[in-house]
Amino acid sequence: MTGLNLIRRLDDWSSRVEDAALAILHAAIATLVCAAVVFRYVLSDPLTWSEELILLLFAWMVFLGIASAFHARTHIIIDVIVMFAPRWLARAFGLLAFLATAVVLGTLTFFSWRYLQREMPNITPMLGISAGWLIAPLFVGSALSLLHLLRNLLDEGPAGALWSDITTRE
Amino acid sequence: MVTLLLGAFALLIVVGTPIWIAMAGSALLVIFMEGIPLTVAAQRIVAGVQSFPLLAIPLFTLAGSLMNASGISERLFSFTKALVGHIRGGPAHTLVVGEVFLSGISGSSVADTAAAARVFVPQLEKLGYPRAFGAALSAVAGTLGPIIPPSILMVVYAWQANISLGSLFVAGIIPGLVMAGCIMATIAIMALKRDFRPAGTFSFGNLWKEFRYASLALLMPVLIIIGFRAGLFTATEIAGVAAAYSLVVGMLIYRTIRLADLPAILIGTARETAVILAIVAAASPFSWILAVDQAPQLVTDFMKSISTDPLVVLLILNIALLIAGMFMETIAIMIILVPILLPLLASLQIDLVHFGIVLLVNLVIGQVTPPVGVLCFVAMAITREKLGPLFRELWPFLIALIVALAIITYVPALSLWLPRVAGF
User: Are B87 and B93 in contact (CB under 8 A)?
Assistant: First the structure.
């Protein structure tokens, strides 16, 4: 089915972009924090805009990282009940957990979009950019999380959409 | 409101929903039922990560990951082997002392347990120690990670309690050593009955050689403490400089990290951070509901109706936290409970730094107790050992940790003396 393959391709592609973005954002944050130290204490010329920019990059790193963790299935779960439950019950729980996660991510996607639109005209104090840039990470992150959840559902079924082997979960 | 919130949260946790989704989901449900616009939840989640102090989490994690990638855990264990390997039960002591140093570099107990299980359990097995013993010991020694600075859990607690992270870091040093001492005393008692052979002979030359190699890594926690003591830098700046230091050591001095290794390290730590920050962000609407519904006041009144003696209250909190730690994930407990407990602690004049250490020791014990003992699972996964044999080796060490907890709880000076004399 081409529709399902489209989801798989979209998911593969977005995971690669997320990973690249995570590496770049994390490197940029570390570099900017160190640069701010040098400018403030060594050159005595503090970067006034750096804190706001770093927090903006941090928000993107966190919410893209959340999406990426759905792809890798590394979100923290208390799985002891599921592990010792009979098979049929574990499957029922898996379905419930999947549905609850999908509903929460869907709600967050929708309402972060509404919030984003409302805040768009506002301008941030230091960088002078639209406040929407600070809210967009939640919207993009939840939407991509939904995509990864859907992809895992296609490949692994409802229980495997969220849970993975304990050895890969840290 | 609180009943619905906690009920929905418990249900979502039981069926196996990710913790942050369970927090966000139950908060969304309550906000919806109360007729408050749901954009409020989105607003609170976005605001939940807009905090400069929390940036210390990815940066300390990065510093630890870089040091780990440079192969320092192997070298630290070689160094401690040269130090204590020759005594009776020496290889087991080596693991514990190695963890003390490793904890001073990484901020995470999971990473520390994984390193000990991977590097040292095969060596212990070769010397005739049972594999289950090695697995149990690496899980138990991993609990030192969040108590000896730097520590990700301390970053979160200092941010919540609005106290100085530097002071909390320094406060953890002696309690961490007390825990290590209790674990090592247990090994010494075991070594009386069991065939715990030493490994190698002691030589100053060998010790000096290993120390010289490991010293650059060991310098990092010292630099972090000096950075805090100077009082000029924020915790986030210190974490950034620690990451830069690890990068320089790993790439230019040890030359074990190549440029091509960096993307994977960065992606890994970014993802680890996101998993923690997801819980922090989701806790923002969750805690908001608890606060609006006066949960902190209810808890304070309830506890004060039982006792107003700080020692009794600490005992009750210890028991409650130990039980919570058995069934719930560490960060989630902190994120939910600390805001609720702060008014109680303030009204009984319990020192927030001391309580932070007591809280963390409780929570790390929860990381090795079944059923939700994450460190046991990590050690089991790496050593391919089963829960039954592991637990038979584990319980004497659990008693040791609970003894350490009692000492740390009732002798506040162990936590508060060092920050005071160090001038924090």
Answer: yes
Cβ atoms of B138 and B95 closer than 8 Å: yes
Give chain A positions within 8 Å (CB) of B59.
29-30, 33
Distance in Å, alpha carbon of A161 to nearest chain B alpha carbon: 11
In angstroms, the Cα distances linking A39 to B60, B74, B137 are 21, 37, 46
Structure tokens at A26: 């994390």
- CB proximity list for B71: less than 8 A, separation 6 or greater: B254, B256
Q: For B70-83, how does the pLDDT look when each residue is reduced to its tens digit (9 = 90+)?
A: 888 888 888 988 88
Q: Which chain B residue's Cα is nearest to A101?
A: B21
Read off the pTM: 0.90
Query: Is B99 within 8 Å of B180 (Cβ atoms)?
Result: yes
pLDDT tens sequence across B140-185: 999 999 999 999 999 999 999 999 999 999 999 999 999 999 999 9
For the record, the structure tokens of A38 come out as: 């040098």
Out of A51, A63, A76, the one facing B19 most closely (by C-beta) is: A76
Alpha-carbon gap: A3 to the closest alpha carbon of chain B (Å): 27
Given a contact cutoff of 8 angstroms between Cβ atoms, the answer to whether B341 and B299 are in contact is yes
Q: Which of B9, B11, B14, B15 to mutate to test the interface with A (most CBs of A within 10 A)?
A: B15
